[in-house]
């Protein structure tokens, strides 16, 4: 699996240290030298990690402050790079940073920091990972039962093709079996979105703990098949953090 990161900085020395550290961890890095352009990218594109040169990039601090309000990156792992003169570590954490690095940054410090953050990035990738899945789903609501076909599923919801629209505010009960398994799921749901082609997204609610664990384990297996090495990288990140 290749993770994606955005580095906002004009500092060539910082780029020289950060880029190879990320690439060694199979994290692609996009570099943006201007805060306003970076803010625009964060609105449209999803990143597993966002690294902001807060003190030495004009407008950088505002990008960090606004990150949690962006639909695509509100849960991304955020790194604040500080120069020790303007913003304090406590202030950076208060603005939403998950990790803070102080300049000058050595290769060793950068490596330790990003290794420590790796498991958070992978877990966040799994959280929004959507597995294509075609299966029969029974949608029960208000005494009626409809047959639908799924298009994809995540740990928090499912997308379906429906033959008829559900009434506004419907809170259906969904029944389905995960493809290739005998795992049967019965979950409460709410409509999250609909489109004109008959597709609808459902958000799961009150999923039994055992069912949630089975779903996450199944998704882990699918993710491992699509992104080989995920388990090994997650284990490596946890091992590094424990030292």
Helix and strand composition category: alpha/beta
Looking at the structure, the CATH topology of the largest domain is Rossmann fold
* Number of H- or I-type helical stretches: 7
Could you list the spans in which at least 5 consecutive residues all have pLDDT below 50?
237-243
N-end to C-end Cα span: 24 Å
What string gives the helices and strands in order? EHEHEHEHEHEEEEEEEHH
Computed CA radius of gyration, to the nearest angstrom: 21 Å
Give the overall shape, derived from the CA principal axes.
elongated
Strand order of the largest sheet: 7-8-9-12-11-10
Characterize the structure shown:
The chain has 243 residues and is of the alpha/beta class. The protein has two domains: 3-128, Response regulator (Rossmann fold, 3-Layer(aba) Sandwich); 131-226, predicted glycosyltransferase like domains (Thrombin, subunit H), CATH 2.40.10. It contains seven helices and twelve strands. The protein has a six-stranded antiparallel β-barrel with strand order 7-8-9-12-11-10. A five-stranded parallel beta sheet has the order 2-1-3-4-5, sandwiched between helices. The radius of gyration is 21 Å and the shape is elongated. The two termini are 24 Å apart.
